[in-house]
Structure formats: C-alpha cells, structure tokens
C-alpha cells in the first residue's frame, strides 16, 4: 500500500511565497497525524482483518513530501486467497458518479495514472517509449490472478470516461485503491494485493529497496511563468536526498512465532565475562572462575532431572525457563519458547564441533561426558562428532580427486584441490594432502632437476597461488607448509662453526638457552649488547645447533634486513601475524587450527632480533596469542623465546609521541620485562681492533660522553672532516668515503663497503644525486607518477607533489646507472631476501623493470626483478592528504638515512650532520656502523645560531630507558 498526503492540504497552510520544503515541520505534522490514524485503522480496527505483521517505509521525496509504503501480512484466518475476495478490498474502476459522487471525485483527483503513452509521451513514467507502470492496463470483466501471480483487477469496459489533465481516461487508467481509505484520507493511496510467491518477493524487495532515482526534465512552455510549484510537483521533481530516507519496521513477531531464547555456547572454562575497560582483569577472572552459564547449568540439569535428558540443549527452553538471576533452569509454566544455540562456523574449530554434538546428543552431563562416544574417550569434540557419524566424510571429495587424477594433469589438479579446500571444507585437509600428494606434484616429481623438498614447496606454492586468487591462503588450512618450510631451512656450514668461536659472554647465553630447550623448560631471554657485540652471531650459532639437532627454530627480526641475515629469518610481524596497530589487548591473527599455530606449537625456540625497535604492544600480542595457542598462562605459552637488541639504538617510532610516551611504548615498560632473563654481551666484535673507538661509541650510546656548556659532545679529531664551506667540505667527505669512484663501476665490494649517513631524506637525496653523477656509466632517469587519491577538486598540483620526499618513498626523480648501489624500500618478498632496506647492486633496467642483485645477508648474489608499484605514505608522515607515488620502490644508497642503516656493518662510513640529530640513539647508530675511528668520518656543518664548532654535535639519549632496563625488580641479569 502506498500513501501520498494531500498536496492541497499542505498548500492551504503555506504562507504566500512559501514552498513545501521550507516547512518540513508542516508536511511532517500533517503526514504524521494521517499516518497514525491510518495505523489505527489497520492495526487497531483491523479494517482488512487481523494483522500478523507489518512493515512500513517512509520516504521523503518530491520536494520534501513524505510518502509511505506498507506491507501488511494478515493472520491465517483473514488471508485473501481467491480473486473474489480481492474485490472486497481493492477497486480499479471509476465508481458510478450518480451513486458515489464524492468517491468518484476522489478517484479522478488522486487515482488516475498519467496520462502517458500515446496521450503524453513525455510523462515521467515513460521509459523507452513504454509506461514503466504498464498503463493503460487491459480491460478485464472480472478479477483474476495473472500468469506472474499478480492480480489482474476487474476493469470493465463500461464506457465511462473522465477528463484528467486534458485527456479522456477510462477504467484502464485507474490506480487500484480501497474506497474506504481513499474517502477517509482524500489522498493518493494505492492498495494492492499480493498473494502469490512471486508477488510477495517483489513487494518485500520494493519496500526494502534503496531510494528511487527519477530524472525529470522541467520544460517551460512559451509565455508561461518560469516557476509553477504545483506543476513541478506533479512533474515529480526529484530532490535527491538519500539521507532523508527513513525505514521503520514494526514486526509483530509474537503473533507469528513464539519468542526465541539464544543459548550460550562456549568451551569448558571459556564462558563470556563482561567487564569495564578500567577493571582489573585478574580480579574479574578470579571472580568469574566456574561462572554458571546456560550450558554448564544444562549439564547440571541433566545430572539431577531425568526428564531433562529427553531434550536436546536447543529444546530445553521449550520445557524449562532460564532464571537469569539465580542462573538455573526452572520448569516452564506457560508460553512456548524456542531455543537457538549461538551460531559458530567451522573455522571456530572445537566450538563448532561442540555445537554439532549439543545438537545431537541427549542428556550430556559435562564437557567430558560429551567426549565419551560408545565407551571411548575422545580427545577433541571434532573426534567425538566424527565417531558419532555427525561429520560428513570427505568421500565425495576424494572421489572427485580420484576421478580428476586419472587425467594426469597435475596443474589442473592443484587448482581443483584449492577449489575443494575453499568450497567443500574437507574435515581432514592434511590427510587429503597426503593421499593425493603424488598426483598433485606429478609434473615436479618427474623433473630430475627438482629435489624432493623443492617438489613439495613448489606444489604448495602453486596451491597457495590458486587459494590467494580466491581470497584465502595456505595458512588457513591444515597443510604442512610452515613446518615443511622451517624443517628445510638450510643451515650454512660456517654457522655450525660459529659455536666454536663464541666469546665468553656469547657462550654463557648460548649454554643457558640450549640447556633450557634440551630440558623442555620455558624461558624468556633478552640478549643485550651494543652494536657489533655479536648478537646476530649468537643467534646464528643457536639456530645452527638446534636445527641440526632436529628442533624447529623460528628466526625473526623487527626489520626485514635484520631478518634476512638470519637463516630462515622473517620479519616478526609477518611470521607471527602481528597486527600493524597493535594495542594493549590485541592478538595476532593466527587461527588455532592453522598450519602456523601448529608450527608455533611444535617450535622449540623463537628468536626475535631488534626487539627494542617495536612497540611493546606487538610483543605482548604475541605473548597473549601463544598463551592461547598453547592453552596455558605461562609467558609465551611456555616457549623458549630469545629477544635481542640494543636500547641505545633508535626506539619505536610513535607518531607525534612525547619523550615520555615513546619510552612508555618501549619494551622495558612491558609487564613481561621484569621476568626477562638478560644476558649482556660486552665485547665489540665489529670494532675489536680499535678499543678506543669501541669505548667512545659505548659512551655515546649510554649518554656518558661529556658534554660542553651547550650540551654538545666532542667528536675525536681523527674522525672529523674539516669545515671550510658547505660545498667544499661536502665534496671532501664524498672523496674520503668514495675515493676514485669514477674508476670503480664494476667493483661491487668497494661499493657495498661504504656509505654516507644523514638524518633526513632531503640530505640523502642531494648526496645521492651528486654521487650518481660522479659514478661512471650512462644514466637513466625514472620519474614518478604522483597523485592525491582523495583530491577530486584538484587542489594539489603535480609539481608540488613531485617536490615531496616523504619518508619511506622513492624520489620523484630516480636516476640509475648500471652497477650503482640501491636500497629496496618495501618488503616485496621477505622470505626470498627482498625486503625493506635490503641493499642491492643495480644490474640493468628497462622502462618498466629494474634488475638488481642482492648484496647482503643470506640471499646475497640472488637476482631480483623490481616492478614500478604504487606506494603510499605511512601514517607516521602527517600529510593532510592521501598521497600516492607510482615509482620503483628503490633509492640510491651511496647515501642513506641513519635509521635505514641500523643493523648494517659499513666499514667506510661518513656521517653528514648539517643539523644536529633529533632522536634517541641516532648518533650512536650512525657511529656504530663503522669498524674503526680511522674509517669513520663525520662532517659537522657549524650552526651560526649556536656556538656549534666543527667538532661538536648533539647526542640525544633517553637515559630513563636504561634506568628501567636495569632497575626492573626481580630481573635476572647474567653478567660475568
Ligand atoms: N665470536 C665471534 N667471533 C668472531 N667474529 C665475531 C664474533 N661475534 C661477532 N663477530 C663478528 O662481529 C661483527 C658484528 O657481529 P654481529 O653483527 O653479530 O653484531 P650485532 O650485535 O648483531 O650488531 P648490530 O647490533 O649492529 O646488528 C660481525 O662481523 C660478526 O661476524
């Protein structure tokens, strides 16, 4: 039923010059009172009969006029099922004017469609030469139900015609109406009957659909006033206001169904607990231990009431009622209620299988009782459901794979396997994999150049590619990917020998950690050591020993570049699936049933290098996740975990954070810290030939180097590049670090052993531009395509965007030469060595690809192809718009920022300081890249505003970090 209010009634109340949209209060008031009266008629006086449910939608359209659609569902006894009954409610004819004068007037006034078609081809309802409402309808001597189940109302050809909008119209133009409602409301009010399924479907869609769009051309006839409000309304001028669409649903479901009781579903001791953000979780957990739930009390009921055992959990609400206050099931006295166990899905694992059991097993008395099947105790609900025969077997899946494998098309079979994983959700994926592995990998197996290990990984990788196209990955299924990959990490021979050459500090840590793994005890270690004291060396020795002894050892680091130095290393975020914006409560996105969870369960040790560089919340997320996966409350689920790093180096970058906030995000402020066992490495193995240099770096790192009255530290003269003027000294620095550069185009060792470090990208870019000019060979320049993704009004000019050099993005103008050093700026393929900060040598280039050779870490020598990709600015760069640069994700790295150099050894290092460093640890990181004073050079540009001398500069150290590091109560620090 569709109802439009009377325009005239509104118009009568408008003041001269006012229009309907100026008086929303008026239109709404008139409409509301009519609507309320209509609702009373329909739902209190039941003019159409008893109503079971109704829905109505109010749309604001046509210059602010409200308009309502009703759908009324009558109770069974009042259903209108035969066409004769239709006529009692709906008429689609002009009434006899001699008998029903007023009604006749109202039909002519409100219920005549058009005219349209041949009478008026420009009417708003016309689409492609036809009326979209199908007027004029056919004459029909009686009401019948049409083929499409819509009623064909009686429209007798009785010769009656009326003049409407200058044309003569007959019964074929009458819009179906109810005589009573039309007379009562004096407005357009269309009433239709929809009894067939098809019609009901349509009508539901109609009232739920989005707003209409009507395009109307308002034509001005010659000589007429340009503005005729009523004409415009009648033309159906559209005010596009989707936000002004109201939908109101009033379901009287009690009339139709009994009420629904949602039954709680949880695993043992995993009842939902509600708390406020400021409440103490430990207290809450204590208070809620053994909390009664509908489910625990259902078990309890089954123990004491033999009648209850006749009902499944979902049937219990029909006979018992849940007393929320006392938390007990009581005998139901009246009213029916149906039960519905809270939903879950197969990816929820055990909870899903518990629900299946509860839906089939009568009278369980406990969780463990549900695990008893035919006298056997199962270890999981899944197993119990299988034993009950409640889980569909994978037969039809294996039958399908059997048939398909006859074709001997392994590649197509791998695709089919992926489709089956996604759409058929086999219960035992691993079994399926084992059964069909030979067929799935047949082509790789027959290739003699592929080893059996490679064969498995290639097969798995292909499957992963298919899965990814369908929005999933291999991690979502119980396939042996992670464990396989970890088991097949190749341990370099030199790493095994490292065990023999550990220094005393390294050896102490090594022995304690190995001991802990051997005894299967838990342990949470932190390897503390200034840059160059051999932390990485120690991790590699540990990984080699443990992997050689058959242990699964997971190696990670905060940055991709540090991870690539460790065999099998991955960034901690990608390996543990840590959310980018971790919080105090976040968890890693690892499903308990996934291959990754299996790997973590089986792993004997986890190593995480550069841990001080991440926010403590990332580490805490891993702690929570491992506790959950391992089902215990010991730190990291009782695993041996080894963190390492150096708090003297740069701390986690926290956007716009104060010094206090930055420190608060540091690992030393974590709840984990006081229980960490710390091993300190003190001997600088990188610069051990230059003890003076080592001592100096350490004093800088600890903030112990003496400062002058301006708060500046003195850099030893041996390291200083004399200042003459900006240009001369800059050139001097370049010449000292890159002597005879023009002759060294093919010497990659020369290139990789040197770099100039600066605090900001703009200095780095300038130095790189200078150096690439000196570097021999033909150059090629790639220009980036810069855009602002949310700039529809073109506010930001391209040349402005081109001038930006945000952190982490390549320059607009990227000039390359064959054999020049470059650095990757994105984690393109971290598990194969292409990660953010990887240094490479550019080998060749084409318009759309750059070919480079990795020149550091375990993938050194590997050739990679780099595409041009769209790159966005990280959230840490506070740009007021969404900037995107399409460019090769690389920078020249003759010079690089200090932050990007972290973790690298650069024997000939230049430090360019046109301004002071600005964050904790920057000076220390820069200096500790070097191996000796004589090969580390610093250029300090004097500052005319302060009394900075050419050999004095700022050193920023947040000493509070070290205090927290040393003072945490109960800390176990191992020192000799
Ligand atoms: N016991 C050792 N015997 C010989 N060389 C060692 C030993 N320990 C470390 N080194 C060497 O010292 C250098 C620095 O070691 P490593 O990179 O492990 O230090 P780090 O503490 O990880 O440094 P950073 O924090 O700067 O990354 C490397 O060249 C490494 O091979």
Automatic annotation (TrEMBL):
In this chain the DNA helicase Pif1-like 2B domain maps to: 799-842
What processes does the entry annotate via GO biological process terms? DNA recombination; DNA repair; telomere maintenance
- Record's InterPro entries? DNA_helicase_pif1-like_DEAD, Helitron_helicase-like, P-loop_NTPase, Pif1-like_2B_dom
Question: Which UniProt key words apply to this protein?
Answer: ATP-binding, DNA damage, DNA recombination, DNA repair, Helicase, Hydrolase, Nucleotide-binding
GO MF, one annotated term: 5'-3' DNA helicase activity
Q: Which Pfam families match?
A: Helitron_like_N (PF14214), PIF1 (PF05970), Pif1_2B_dom (PF21530)
Enzyme class per UniProt: isomerase
Q: Which cofactor does it need?
A: Mg(2+)
Q: What is its EC number?
A: 5.6.2.3
Limits of the DNA helicase Pif1-like DEAD-box helicase domain: 502-709
Under catalytic activity, the entry for this protein gives: ATP + H2O = ADP + phosphate + H(+)
What top-level branch of life does the organism fall under? Eukaryota
Stretches assigned to the Helitron helicase-like domain: 1-72
| Family as reported in the entry's similarity comment | Belongs to the helicase family.
> What protein am I looking at?
ATP-dependent DNA helicase
């Amino acid at each position: 039923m569709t109802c439009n209010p009377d325009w005239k009634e509104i118009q009568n109340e408008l003041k001269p010059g006012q229009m309907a949209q100026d008086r929303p209060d008026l239109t709404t008031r008139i409409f509301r009172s009519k609507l309320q009266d209509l609702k009373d008629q329909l739902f209190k006086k039941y003019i159409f009969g008893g109503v079971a449910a109704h829905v109505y939608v109010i749309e604001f359209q046509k210059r602010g006029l409200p308009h309502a659609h009703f759908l009324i569902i009558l109770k069974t006894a009042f259903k209108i099922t035969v066409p004769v009954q239709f006529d009692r409610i709906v008429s689609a004819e002009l009434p006899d004017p001699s008998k029903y004068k007023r009604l006749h007037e109202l039909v002519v006034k409100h219920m005549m469609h058009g005219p349209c078609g041949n009478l008026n081809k420009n009417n708003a309802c016309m689409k492609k030469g036809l009326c979209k409402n199908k007027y004029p309808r056919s004459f029909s001597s009686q009401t019948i139900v049409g083929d499409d189940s819509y009623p064909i109302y009686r429209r007798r050809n009785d010769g009656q015609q009326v003049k409407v909008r200058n044309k003569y119209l007959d019964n074929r133009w009458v819009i179906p109406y109810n005589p009573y409602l039309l007379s009562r409301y004096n407005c357009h009010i269309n009433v239709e009957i929809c009894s067939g399924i098809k019609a009901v479907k349509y009508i539901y869609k109609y009232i739920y659909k989005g707003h209409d769009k009507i395009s109307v051309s308002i034509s001005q006839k010659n000589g007429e006033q340009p503005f005729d409000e009523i004409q415009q309304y009648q033309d159906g001028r559209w005010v596009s206001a989707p936000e002004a669409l109201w939908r109101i649903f009033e379901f009287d479901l009690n009339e139709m169904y009994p009420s629904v009781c949602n039954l709680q579903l949880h695993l043992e001791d995993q009842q939902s607990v509600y708390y406020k953000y400021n409440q103490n979780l430990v207290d809450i957990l204590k208070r809620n231990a053994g909390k009664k739930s509908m489910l625990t009390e259902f078990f309890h009921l089954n123990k004491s009431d033999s009648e209850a055992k006749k009902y499944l959990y979902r049937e219990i609400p029909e006979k018992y009622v849940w007393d929320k206050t006392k938390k007990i099931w009581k005998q139901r006295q009246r009213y029916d209620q149906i039960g519905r166990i809270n939903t879950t899905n197969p990816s929820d694992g055990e909870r899903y299988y518990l629900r299946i059991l509860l839906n089939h097993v009568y009278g369980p008395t406990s969780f463990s009782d549900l695990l008893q099947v035919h006298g056997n105790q199962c270890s999981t609900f899944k197993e119990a459901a299988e034993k009950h025969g409640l889980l569909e077997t994978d037969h039809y899946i294996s039958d399908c794979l059997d048939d398909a494998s006859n074709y001997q098309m392994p590649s197509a079979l791998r695709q089919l396997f992926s489709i089956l994983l996604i759409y058929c959700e086999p219960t035992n994926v691993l079994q399926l994999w084992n059964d069909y592995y030979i067929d799935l990998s047949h082509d790789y197996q027959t290739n003699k150049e592929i080893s059996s290990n490679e064969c498995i990984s290639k097969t798995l990788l292909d499957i992963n590619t298919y899965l990814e196209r369908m929005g999933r990955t291999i991690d979502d299924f119980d396939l042996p990917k992670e464990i396989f990959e970890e088991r097949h990490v190749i341990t370099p021979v030199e790493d095994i020998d490292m065990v023999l050459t550990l220094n005393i500090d390294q050896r102490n840590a090594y022995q304690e950690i190995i001991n802990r793994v051997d005894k299967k005890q838990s342990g949470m270690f932190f390897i503390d050591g200034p840059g160059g004291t051999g932390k990485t060396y120690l991790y590699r020795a540990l990984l080699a020993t443990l992997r050689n002894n058959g242990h699964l050892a997971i190696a990670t680091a905060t940055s991709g570049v540090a991870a690539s130095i460790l065999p099998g290393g991955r960034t901690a975020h990608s390996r543990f699936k840590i959310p980018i914006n971790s919080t105090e409560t976040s968890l890693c996105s690892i499903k308990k049933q996934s291959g990754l969870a299996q790997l973590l369960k089986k792993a004997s040790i986890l190593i995480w290098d550069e841990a001080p560089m991440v926010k403590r919340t990332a580490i805490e997320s891993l702690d929570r996740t491992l506790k959950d996966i391992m089902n215990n409350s010991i730190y990291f689920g009782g695993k041996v975990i080894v963190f390492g790093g150096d708090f003297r180096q740069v701390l986690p970058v926290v956007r716009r954070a104060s010094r206090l906030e930055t420190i608060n995000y540091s690992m030393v402020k974590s709840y984990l810290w006081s229980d960490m066992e710390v091993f300190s490495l003190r001997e600088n193995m990188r610069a051990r030939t230059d003890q003076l240099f080592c001592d100096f770096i350490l004093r800088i790192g600890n903030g112990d180097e003496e400062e002058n009255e301006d708060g500046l530290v003195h850099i030893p003269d041996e390291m200083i590049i004399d200042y003459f003027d900006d240009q001369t000294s800059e050139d001097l620095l370049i010449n000292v670090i890159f002597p005879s550069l023009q002759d060294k185009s093919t010497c990659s060792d020369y290139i990789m052993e040197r770099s100039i470090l600066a605090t900001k990208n703009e200095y780095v870019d300038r130095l790189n531009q200078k150096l690439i000019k000196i570097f021999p060979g033909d150059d090629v320049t790639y220009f980036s395509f810069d855009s602002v993704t949310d700039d529809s009004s073109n506010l930001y000019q391209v040349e402005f965007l081109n001038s930006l050099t945000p952190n982490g993005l390549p320059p607009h103008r990227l000039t390359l030469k064959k054999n020049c050093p470059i650095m990757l700026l994105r984690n393109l393929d971290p598990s194969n060595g292409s990660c953010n900060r990887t240094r490479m040598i550019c080998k060749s280039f084409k318009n759309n690809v750059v070919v480079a050779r990795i020149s550091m870490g375990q993938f050194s020598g590997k050739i990679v192809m780099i595409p041009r990709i769209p790159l966005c600015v990280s959230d840490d760069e506070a740009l007021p718009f969404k900037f995107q640069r399409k460019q090769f994700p690389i920078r020249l790295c003759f010079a690089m920022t200090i932050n990007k150099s972290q973790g690298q050894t650069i024997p000939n290092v230049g430090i360019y300081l046109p301004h002071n460093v600005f964050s904790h640890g920057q000076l220390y990181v820069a200096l500790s890249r070097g191996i000796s004073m004589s090969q580390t050079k610093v250029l300090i540009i004097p500052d005319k505003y302060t009394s900075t001398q050419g050999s004095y500069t700022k050193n920023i150290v947040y000493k509070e970090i070290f205090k927290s590091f040393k003072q945490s109560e109960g800390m176990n620090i191992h020192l000799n």
